[in-house]
Amino acid sequence: MMDLNPNYSFSRQRPDETVLAVIRKHWYILAIRITWSTLAVILVIIALILAQQLSLAIAQGWKLVITYTVVVAVWLLYMVYEYHDWWEDKLIITDQRILSVDRQGMFSRSVTELDLLELQDANYVIQGFIGTIFKFGAIALESASDKIDIYMDHIHDPKQIQELITRLAKQAKKEN
Asked: CB under 8 Å, gap of 24 or more: what pairs does 61-70 form?
């Protein structure tokens, strides 16, 4: 998902810096995670219904209500976590640099910054049947010093993003 929103701002943004694009992972990735977890919850509920039919102790009266409540609450918390993880993993492309924000759990993140003047190489790849159909893949950015590398997978239209980044880097080098 690419958001061409110049009104986007972030905490480490420089005063003279303009955000040109914010790229998140493809919606398909979130949909797959939600689908699998929903199927798991459905299987647990089916197991609870079968346990109730077999008159097992866990599936009787208030224990059944508590068990259903816990299963649904855990599932809802997991949905919030997955959405938060999907939303917060992003590439921020500005007129000066590229930032990769990678959420690692609910309370930590890794931010990698690559100045456009230091960009040495930008590559993309689209693999497999699903990636080709839904037009998503990965992008890899390498710095001239080999100290900074940015890699993000499952992004929509990596070819367009690679072309944008390459164009911005050439423009930055020409102006410098």
From this structure: none
CB atoms within 10 A of CB 102: 17
Q: For 29, which DSSP code? A: H
Residue-wise over 21-58: b if at least 16 C-beta within 10 A, else e? Answer: bbbbbbebbbeebbeebeeebeebeeebeebeeeeeee
d(CA 163, CA 159): 6
Where does 14-148 show beta strands of DSSP type E? Answer: 19-24, 90-94, 97-103, 109-115, 119-125, 136-143
* Helical (H) or strand (E) element with 46: helix 27-53
Distance of CA 74 to the CA centre of its chain: 21
Are 26 and 44 a contacting pair, CB within 8 Å?
Answer: no
Q: Rounded CA gap, 144 and 116, in Å?
A: 10
Question: In the predicted model, is pLDDT for residue 159 greater than 80?
Answer: yes
Residue 154 in this model has a pLDDT that exceeds 90:
yes
66: pLDDT confidence band, cut at 50, 70 and 90?
confident
Residue type, 142: E
